[in-house]
TMX4 protein (Pampusana beccarii), 146 residues
Amino acid sequence: YAPWCPACQQIEPTWESFAKESEHLDITVGKVDITQEPGLSGRFFVTTLPTIYHANDGVFRRYRGSRTLEDLQGYILERKWEAVEPVAGWKSPSSIMMHGMAGLFHLSGWIRQIHSYLTGTLGIHVWLSYAIFILATLLIGLFLGL
């Protein structure tokens, strides 16, 4: 979820109720703020918000059903998750490809922090900051090419 997402804000009371019932369902319910954990957003290939996953013994399934409390509970109690195709091997959050994707999301966050530091703290004009990143990209490419 993301705190700024209207759909996430709408499902939050239902999700909190589902989390309170989790002990009776013998499951653990959690939520991840993708603005605080961009690597997980990359690892799980989150493209829409909110995104719900069911994980069991290292097998991940994306929940695409209705987002009512009754349907979420039914998904667990009636074991409807067993009929859902697991996330494909290369898209699995534990795959090497998704580890790399998580790294790219971390890198983008790091670049954003540097840009904010250059423009906000040091007062460098935005276009000069872009020029610095272009130059750094070219120099890194040149260095790696050698």
Q: What stands out?
A: The chain has a mean pLDDT of 88. The chain has two domains: 6-91, 96-145. The chain is about 55% helix and 5% strand. The radius of gyration is 20 Å.
